[in-house]
Amino acid sequence: MLIIDTHAHIYAQDEKRYPPIEKPLRPPGGKGTLGDLRAETASHGVRAACLIQTSTFYRFDNRCICDSSKVSSDWAAGVCTLDPDDPHSPGLLSQYQREFGIKGMRSIPGQSGRIDGDGVRRLWKTAADEGLVINALMRRENAENLGRMLADFPGLRVVLDHCMYVEIGPQYDAILGDVLSLAKFKNLHAKLTFVPTGSKQKYPCADLHDAVLKIVDAFGPERCVWGSDFPCELWTPGITYSQHLQIFLKDLPLRDAARQQILGLTAKRLWFPEWL
To answer: Is the pTM of this model over 0.90?
Structure first.
């Protein structure tokens, strides 16, 4: 089965070349390098990975993700993050695609707090022109605004990062309801990375299995993807890389055809179309 990890953060060992922000979030034990990810994916039969800009370490400095993407183009796709309030960001996005082969951009709200502000729109327009994929990182207060963006950019492929952080708690029904309501936009895809981060239980995080199944049913498995949250030592400390993968390989009651879509085929169409 083709398996593609659509959510991995990387950290460079050379902090002089790639300096972190003040008070960065660091993975324990120095884990999280590009080499660590390559070894982790290879040991689990994962064919490819999306490298997501580590904003909690580098903020809008995309040099590490760009360089890593260029040297790993045979197995990785880079996803940068740019400041929607910086007028130079659209030009940088085009440059990153042209010079480093960046495949997508993680889209965040601007200083206004909205995902549909003018700066975000300019970046989405550039992504559409360049044929890139948008990863929308936001919480449910922007659900209606995201709907407007999806309607205004119907040809742009968009992935909802972490499904707006579905988690067990008082907001569970509201968040899940908003995610399900967005499934009507056919250009939106669901990234099912919230299971270990939103669960209140240990492996296999059974309290969030129903949410996954409802999202898969609403979007269809052909619009759902899996990602590990690498390095798991930092982002999913109670769940290992192997366990997170096993939840989708074995523990969730999915049909084989659905597993194939979620674990690899959908991601192949989004970020690795040259494999088709």
So the answer is: yes
